[in-house]
Write a structure and sequence with these properties.
Blueprint lengths: L12 E5 L3 H10 L5 E5 L25 H10 L3 H7 L3 E4 L4 E5 L2 E2 L8 E4 L2 H13 L4 E4 L3 E7 L6 E7 L7 E4 L2 E4 L7 H7 L7 E16 L10 E4 L8 E8 L3 E8 L9 H9 L5 H6 L3 E2 L4 E11 L11 E3 L5 E2 L7 H16 L6 H12 L1 H11 L13 H14 L4 H11 L11 H9 L23
Parallel strand pairs: 1-2, 1-11, 2-7, 4-13, 11-18
Antiparallel strand pairs: 3-6, 4-5, 8-9, 9-10, 12-15, 12-16, 12-17, 13-14, 14-15, 17-19
Helix pairs in contact: 1-4, 1-8, 2-8, 8-9, 11-13
């Protein structure tokens, strides 16, 4: 993602509302197109990797898919090297990770798909540091956005009104472009109604997912043959998920989660008992060897949500929406930041055609882009009988084939690599339906036949070294 080939006429000022990951990536992109970029953030921002109030899920395990990292690194050259220097772990999820899914252990083969693993606060801090170093970017923290500036007929947004906490005085910030990256709590639908637009349609899927996460010190000499471990739920019967992921500082971040209010406990005994109840006991066995670092922290996520800005009959010019303010998914599938990055990339493509008509071009393009990650996450959630009334046509076939395909990944290298590329949004989901893979999945041996064993030994032995 190089400099824009056709500079925009009079690209003076752009404002990004919110320093979410979507907001930071957007601001980095806009810095290539506009003379000035201002990021307005309600939280006070520290020059250290700490969890901030506006990101309540920041204590939980985060996975950044390969496609998202590629976009982020194109906006901020050197980002991957910067993260590794700060302790981020580079993993091949297929070769370095043990993954139990659909009743089988996925085959361990090099996939060529590298994932960078670090805590959310570290990732956000490093990106924000690189953004703040750009000479035409200003980060205005500790300020609330109180409303739009707009032309009299509401057809164009011309800036924002902001206010410092505790102050009654508003500051007017004029801009050629305003980007809403303020997250799920965005007031954009209400503000658009105030401009005379109809209420933005919303699609909601009630999943009531709960998380509990704890940091552990990786035991000295730990060697179970894997660096990361995922034990997937087996919906609809087993609704519990667990993951161990290495992060900076020689630590694991361990997350347990469950659907439909099957929330993991936050007390020591309950947390371990929940881990032991997963489809496989390996995660529980590993935790028994590890030293906990701090408390068990919980987070609950009630529903996936898509605000259909793309369906509005008209949108004000000078305004776009990115990230969770537009669409937010079940976070178990790890698509959030990457889907936001895809919207930012689309915004860049639309900007190359100029500011005139930008908003409509962007929303149409974004609406198409969101269909894939939305389908990937919701299709799996619809396995739950409680959501049966919302299932789209063809779901039964997708469940049948999906399970056979996942079981195929226990023995077939091509299936593993294809799945990883689809999961990381490097290839379209239709790739798993190629004639060759479809035939393999259709004719594979029954799951009850002998299958490759999972990681051994079950109870991990560690060295006595300090």
């Amino acid at each position: 993602m190089g400099p824009p080939p056709n500079p925009i006429v009079s690209p003076r000022h752009a404002i990004v509302c919110g320093s979410s990951m979507a907001g930071l990536l957007t601001a980095g992109l806009l810095a290539r197109y506009f003379e000035r970029v201002t990021v307005v953030e309600r939280d006070g921002l520290e020059n250290t990797p700490v969890v901030r109030k506006g990101v309540p899920q920041g204590t939980q395990t985060h996975i950044l898919l390969k496609r998202g990292m590629d976009i982020a690194a194109a906006i901020f050259p050197g980002l991957m090297e910067d993260l590794q220097a700060a302790g981020a772990q580079a993993l091949d999820m297929a070769a370095d990770g043990a993954w139990h899914v659909a009743g089988v252990w996925r085959k361990r083969v090099p996939s060529g798909v590298t994932m960078y693993s670090q805590t959310r606060p570290l990732f956000e801090w490093r990106v924000r540091t690189m953004l703040a170093a750009l000479p035409n970017v200003r980060i205005l923290d500790r300020h609330d956005v109180t409303g739009f500036l707009h032309v009299a007929d509401g057809t164009r947004v011309t800036g924002l009104k902001v206010r410092a906490p505790g102050s009654t005085e508003e500051t007017r910030l004029e801009a050629d472009l305003v980007v809403d990256a303020s997250g799920r709590g965005s007031r954009m639908p209400q503000w658009l109604e105030a401009l005379g637009l109809p209420r933005v349609e919303e699609t909601r899927i009630q999943i009531d997912v709960g998380y509990a996460t704890r940091l552990y010190r990786i035991p000295p000499g730990f060697d179970a043959g894997w660096k990361s471990l995922i034990v997937s739920a087996e919906l609809p019967t087993n609704r519990r998920f667990g993951a161990i992921v290495p992060v900076e500082g020689g630590r694991w971040t361990v997350t347990l989660s469950g659907w439909l209010k099957d929330y993991p406990p936050t007390d020591e005994e309950g947390f371990l008992a929940y881990a032991r109840s997963l489809a496989q006991p390996h995660l529980y066995e590993a935790l028994k060897q590890a030293e906990p670092l701090g408390p068990i922290l919980s987070y609950r996520y009630s529903h996936s949500q898509w605000r259909h800005f793309e369906r509005l009959p008209r949108v004000p010019e000078g305004l776009v929406v990115v990230g969770d303010a537009f669409c937010s998914f079940n976070p178990i599938y790890g698509q959030g930041i990457t889907s936001s990055a895809l919207l930012v990339e689309a915004l860049g493509e639309c900007l190359r055609k100029g500011l005139d008509g930008l908003s409509r071009r962007y929303f149409e393009r974004a609406g198409q882009l969101l269909k894939v990650p939305w389908a990937l996450s919701t299709t799996e959630d619809f396995r739950l009988p409680e959501l049966g009334a919302m299932r789209p046509l063809g779901s039964s076939f997708l469940y049948w084939y999906g399970e056979r395909f996942q079981q195929l990944t226990s023995t077939d290298d091509e299936a593993v690599r294809t799945f990883m590329e689809v999961m990381h949004m490097l290839r379209p989901p239709t790739s798993i339906f190629s004639p060759k893979l479809f035939w393999k999945a259709l004719t594979r041996r029954p799951v009850t036949a002998a299958l490759p064993r999972g990681p051994e030994p079950l109870t991990v032995h560690v060295s006595k070294a300090a």
